[in-house]
Amino acid sequence: MKKTTFLELLCVLFAFLFFYTGIVKYLDYTNFSYDLRRSYVFGPFSNVASILLPAAELAISAGLFIPRFRSIALYCFTFMMAAFTLYVGGMLIFVDHASRPCTCGGIIRDMSWPQHLVFNIVVTLLGIIAIYLHKKTYRKTGTAELTTL
């Protein structure tokens, strides 16, 4: 598989992941905001976070499809996934199972905490790979657009 094709596939998968979770969080806003209020990390900021987190996911999702914004969207995606990974890891280490609020959306919410951690680690690593591939392609073509779509 060509590197550019793999990069395109990763960007589509990342965009779908953030679009899906962002929309689900808004559709199930009551539960999402309730879980954020229960969170040790987001509790004090739950009102703002319940609006900004899904909005950021949707904006990043859109940015992954726009060549001009793809680079920053890949960095933002990978940063957010790394932050989510640290959050899940911290919850596993420091919070007992009964007190762990899951602020994720859709089918991801149905994962166990260890499964969620592994999923986040894998997706974060794929984000790092995508950044590397994008940089390599950008350097090669001299434009923000990929050589092949």
- Mean pLDDT equals 87
Rough shape? Answer: globular
Low-pLDDT regions: none
- The figure for the number of domains is 1
Q: What structural class is derived from the secondary structure elements?
A: mainly alpha
**Terminal Cα separation, in Å?**
13 Å
Beta-strand share of residues: under 5%
Number of helices: 5
| Rg, Å, rounded | 16 Å
- Please provide the count of β strands: 0
Helicity level: over 70%
Molecular structure report:
With 149 residues, the protein is an all-alpha fold. The protein has one domain. Helices cover 72% and strands 0% of the residues. The radius of gyration is 16 Å and the shape is globular.
Q: What structural keywords apply?
A:
5 helices, 149 residues, mainly alpha, globular
List the helices and strands and how they pair.
Layout: H1 3-27, H2 29-38, H3 46-63, H4 70-94, H5 113-141
Helix pairs in contact: 1-2, 1-3, 1-5, 2-3, 3-4, 4-5
Compact overview of the structure:
The protein is an all-alpha fold and 149 residues long.
